[in-house]
Design goal:
mainly alpha, Growth Hormone, Chain: A, disordered N terminus, transmembrane helix
């Protein structure tokens, strides 16, 4: 992973001539199907875990509890193996993202995305043909390998091919396709839930579709110029850069890429660089943003939306339809971020989004505390209000913490630690997702309605952190992030020398070599 580069920026980044070409648009759209794979799995998991045929075959104890007349509403789905079905994917994703970061450097972003699609396809086949729980979990592990490779390579790929002034909006296409994947999965679950015996197989097998689209489409996209240059293919890198920028005058940007990759390639131990004092601020902010993203509680809603709605007394079909509604809100609301992130700024969206989510979570908690006892059902009118509040919550997340977690973590690291730092961000996201997925149903059983206040408390903490500790990165060129952001922050500036940061020797030596002799 040494010497990897996520994106190239400079103090004159905005002067690079470039157009938003059809080639870039097509490459982004195809690559973003890696996000659709991820989103489809998030949405499909909660749907099939509410299907009786699926539970009867793999989790008979949960089936009995679910259909027991006097079973505790909050505990009917509390089963460690059912939670493992959902969460096992993310353990595999953590391991796979590490391997994917090495693969991205050695072989390129494009082959890594192809590997992601192959892993995901194998996982879908294993799941659709699963005859027992071990086979089902094995399929989940292959899906996890696909998610890990995709989440490492796709944002990296989109960032590197995007013209600087369009980078923010194009990056969010990855998150947009995640939400579309969730919506598609919810729709599939709604229609397959009434198909006896094998409806769940159709739902799980549907994961193969975005995998095939990404695999086939990957043969039509280009490798990123940065990846080509860092692997010694400068001539091909220059040709590709002209093609994706839509102009011939790319020499300035090309030279900046060459210079940056030469510097980065001389850093043989980027993980050691992350342990140095100047690397601590971006390391903390770039990773904790993913901790906070998961502890908003969003994946509780996305994973287990049908389960939550059934807990409140909805029937199976009604709960799936409600999940479709929230999935639609999620997709449409993400579009807001594409058009506002480079105008309003990152911090404002994060704080206002957290505020909306917190109010919605607290209100839901109060309602369920009052109306949902261990054995009673929530009145129909109140249940509809809860669905509306969940839509409000999803809306607040979709244009703030959802897309900005991935965007900010790709911006804050300096060049020499950007790939290694981004790996930690992805791994942190997967680890926290695993923790939430594995623990939620047990937490719901023991904490009941107070689970919503638990996540609301986290939203308060993260809002305070964003206001006090997270610097604004809107409009700041990547290579000026240290000078204009970190060294001017009231707290983080203490991690840097007063005159300059302690740059790696390789960077100093390279700059010395480039100075003209007089």
């Amino acid at each position: 992973m040494a010497g990897g580069v996520i994106a190239i920026g400079s103090g004159s980044e905005q002067d690079f001539p470039a157009k938003l070409t059809l080639q870039v648009f097509i490459c982004t759209a195809i690559a973003a199907f890696g996000g659709l794979m991820f989103g489809y799995d998030i949405g499909i998991s909660g749907g099939v875990t509410g299907m009786d045929d699926f539970l009867l075959k793999f989790f008979p104890n949960v089936y009995v509890k679910k259909n027991h007349a006097h079973e505790n509403n909050y505990c009917k789905f509390d089963d460690e193996y059912l939670q493992l079905f959902t969460s096992s994917l993310y353990l595999a994703a953590i391991v796979a993202s590490g391997g994917a970061s090495l693969m991205c450097k050695k072989y390129g972003r494009k082959p890594t995305m192809q590997a992601a699609s192959i892993f995901f396809f194998i996982g879908a086949i294993l799941n659709v043909s699963a005859m027992n729980l071990p086979m089902l979990i094995l399929g989940r592990l292959f899906l996890g390998a696909g998610v890990g490779c995709g989440n490492q390579a796709v944002p990296l790929f989109i960032t590197e091919i995007s013209p600087p002034k369009f980078r923010g909006g194009l990056n969010i296409c990855f998150q947009l396709l995640i939400t579309v994947g969730i919506l598609v999965a919810n729709c599939v679950n709604y229609f397959t839930s009434n198909i006896k015996n094998y409806g769940w197989r159709i739902s799980l097998g549907g994961a193969a579709v975005p995998a095939v689209i990404l695999l086939v489409g990957s043969f039509a996209i280009v490798e990123t110029p940065t990846s080509l240059i860092e692997r010694g293919k400068k001539e091909k890198g220059l040709k590709t850069l002209k093609r994706i920028r839509g102009v011939d005058d790319v020499q300035k940007e090309f030279e900046e890429m060459v210079r940056a990759t030469e510097v980065a390639n001389q850093i043989k131990h980027p993980f050691r660089e992350l342990m140095k004092k100047p690397s601590i601020p971006p390391m903390i902010c770039g990773t904790i943003i993913h901790v906070f993203q998961q502890f908003t509680g969003i994946n509780v809603v996305m994973f287990y939306a049908p389960v939550l709605f059934q807990t409140m007394g909805f029937g199976s079909s009604a709960s799936l339809l409600s999940a479709v509604i929230t999935g639609t809100v999620n997709s449409l609301s993400t579009v807001i971020a594409i058009f506002t992130v480079d105008k309003a700024g990152r911090k404002k969206l994060l704080v206002f989004g957290a505020l909306i989510c917190m109010v919605a979570q607290c209100t839901i908690g109060v309602i369920l505390k009052k109306y949902l006892t261990e054995t009673s059902k929530v009145p129909n009118s109140i249940a509809k209000v809860v669905v509306l509040l969940i839509c409000v919550y999803v809306n607040g997340f979709a244009w703030s913490w959802g897309p900005l977690g991935w965007l900010i973590s790709s911006e804050v690291f300096p060049l020499e630690t950007r790939t290694s730092g981004y790996f930690f961000a992805v791994a942190t996201n997967m680890l926290c997702t695993f923790i939430i997925a594995q623990a939620f149903l047990s937490m719901l059983c023991h904490m009941r309605a107070y689970i919503y206040f638990f996540f609301a408390a986290w939203l308060i903490v993260m809002s305070i952190f964003v206001m006090a500790m997270l610097p604004e990165t809107k409009g700041v060129p990547l290579d000026e992030m240290v000078e204009r952001v970190w060294k001017k922050h009231w707290f983080w500036k203490s991690f840097f020398k007063s005159s300059d940061i302690e740059r790696p020797k390789a960077m100093v030596q390279l700059e010395h070599q480039e100075k003209p002799n007089h």
